Amino acid sequence: MRTLVLTFVRLGPTLVYAAGMLFAASIILLATFPGNPLSWALYLTLLPVLRLPAFVLLDLPGVEVWHVIAALAFIAACGVYFVTQPKRFIRARFFHAHVALLALIFANTGAHSAQAVGLGLTPPGEYQWSLPIPTTLLGTALVTLVALACLSTHADIIRRILRA
């Protein structure tokens, strides 16, 4: 039972990258089928969870939606491979989980309020230093899973240091 729970927790960052891939795919679905309610439902479900990271990737010069889907699919596949061999890839799991956590925190900084958020510099004194809580159940579940995955990698690193 412990192994199953740890495997599910370690898959948390992979679920974030898979959700980002689905969000990018929903953009293509909306462009292809703008009247389809299922494409709108998928897009609007994932919009508050991964809006800013996906749009930052799409704003890079020369990057199209297909590139983002391929990159996120590759990163998610790497995450599944890391989970299958947890003792071997501790540093890669650490990086994988913390990048997913930073992406979710970055996404939630703009999603917790109804106002538009720019990516530029904020005037002094206007930045809130509290961690924004996700507004959706999916966002809360992903942040919880990824935070637990980060704690798991920290515990594995500490355990490895103590054994050495």
Short description:
The protein has 164 residues and is an all-alpha fold.
Q: Which range best describes the helical content: under 10%, 10-25%, 25-40%, 40-55%, 55-70% or over 70%?
A: over 70%
Number of domains: 1
What's the pLDDT, averaged over the residues? 84
Radius of gyration: 17 Å
Protein name: ABC-type multidrug transport system permease subunit
Keywords: Membrane, Transmembrane, Transmembrane helix
Transmembrane segments: 15-33, 64-83, 95-117, 137-158
Structural features, described:
With 164 residues, the chain is an all-alpha fold. It has one domain. Helices cover 74% and strands 0% of the residues. It is built from six helices and no strands. The chain has helices at 2-10, 12-32, 37-59, 65-84, 90-111, 137-163. Helix 2 crosses helix 5 and helix 3 packs across helix 5 (90-111). The chain starts with a helix and ends with a helix. The model is unreliable at 112-119 (pLDDT under 50).
List the helices and strands and how they pair.
Layout: H1 2-10, H2 12-32, H3 37-59, H4 65-84, H5 90-111, H6 137-163
Helix pairs in contact: 1-6, 2-3, 2-4, 2-5, 2-6, 3-5, 4-5, 5-6
Transmembrane segments: 15-33, 64-83, 95-117, 137-158
Protein name: ABC-type multidrug transport system permease subunit
Keywords: Membrane, Transmembrane, Transmembrane helix
Entry keywords:
about 160 residues, mainly alpha, transmembrane helix
